[in-house]
Write a structure and sequence with these properties.
four-stranded mixed sheet, single chain, UDP-N-acetylmuramoyl-L-alanine:D-glutamate ligase
Amino acid sequence: MSTKTDILVLGGAGVDTIVHVPELPLPYADSYMINPGIVTRAGQSGDFVALGVTALGLRTHHIDLLGDDPEGDLVRAFHRDLGIPLTEVPSVQGTKRAVNLVGPDGRRLSLYDNTRSQESDRLPDATVRALAAASRHAHVVITYPCALALPALREAGVTISTDLHNWDGVNPYHEPFALAADLVFLSTTALADPERTMRDIAARGRARIVVATAGAEGAYLLADGELTHVPAVTPPAPVVDTNGAGDAFASGFLLGWLAGENVYRCALYGAVAGAYACTVPSTRADAIGRDDLLARATDPVLTSDPAVGTARKAASAESGA
């Protein structure tokens, strides 16, 4: 079957309620006056990856469980307005939702409603196989029940990526995702020894590449047994919210991955996309476009860190650019 989709995104559809707070952690008080207000909008991890890769010109399809509720209507409208095909599987428990507390410096604290899934929830294997067979790659969000879809994806023969987010390297919930994916993203936030965890993922699983993002410190790239630091990219505007930065990084990386770029250029694409995402208020959904990303990825003043220039030269030499 000829592929009609570049990236199949599984899971991570839902809504966030954004609450701006004067500081994080938030001290106890009877009440706070919130400015610029409280906004509920569609967009969780899978939605943001689907948005990011679509904005970069990749053909995308998203599948997840959704409820017959107002939150599900927001998710359906999100995909309809952006032209992202969506396969929805009915969820009796309702659409996933979360509350994000956002501080003045753009940091966020997410409170996820864990009642929106149950053991009987499934993404139908036949549907997953059919969508995967028509796709070049699958990005699997760690929301339940996506781990149960991993065997069907493997049978379909697509490459797989996943984002473990703030995994501590110990929680067993994340392991099926970590060990089944060809490309693994995660954050260093909860890792005592990021390199050890990255190498453990590569040694025990299928991952050819492991990327650990570290916020303003950039990211760490493990490929072919070699660990490389990828410096952060200077955002094109003031940082207002870090929500979705990791999803944007993954989207940029996947653009390079599917284009056959070397891993260093893929990481640079990810860093550019992630930096842009930090300039977007969490109350709206936006992502960097392909032309803008490619232009920023070759801009000599993109960052003040000379190491990025060195990495860029090495990437250009390797790719013959």
